[in-house]
Amino acid sequence: MSEKLISRRGAFSLLGLAAALSFAVPLTASEAEAQAQPVTPTPTAPAPTAPGPTTAAPTAPATSGMTRREQRRAARRTARQERREARHNARQMRRQARQNARQTRRQARQNARMQRREARRGNNLYMKSNQPAKQQ
Q: What is the spatial distance between Cα 42 and Cα 37, in angstroms, rounded to a whole number?
């Protein structure tokens, strides 16, 4: 027969199942007993009820460990927001640089087209700069 070790998780689940069953069985038994007993009107004093909490329970004061943990969390949150903003700004800068470069290239192409068009029409302004000036 081989022995099988039970994990901690398995042990806790069995313990929880046993606890649930131990609470469930007496509840159902007491309900069955309550239904089986005949209801007889007997003058008894009502059972005193526990007074409900009138004020909120005082919270424990923040310990130094709690405050340090909250400070670490706040610092992480701030750092995360700063990283996000930095990434966002970097993306915007790259996008703007691409748009500017694209606009510059378009402008250069447009100027070159215009100069070629002028040259074809006979207004050879940019071609004349390459030729020597006519002597009169």
A: 13
Residues in CB range of 127: below 8 A, 6 or more apart: 119
Among residues of the chain, what percentage have pLDDT more than 90?
38
H helix or E strand, kind and range, residue 9: helix 8-36
pLDDT in tens, 73-131: 999 999 999 999 999 999 999 999 999 999 999 999 999 999 999 888 886 555 555 55
Quick check: helix, strand or coil at residue 8?
Answer: helix
Token pair 């002597």 in the structure block, residue: 135
List of residues 6+ apart from 124 with CB closer than 8 A = 118
**Nearest residue to 115 via CA among 107, 103, 127:** 127
pTM over 0.70: no
Which residue, among 15, 21, 53, has the nearest Cα to 6 in the 3D structure? 15
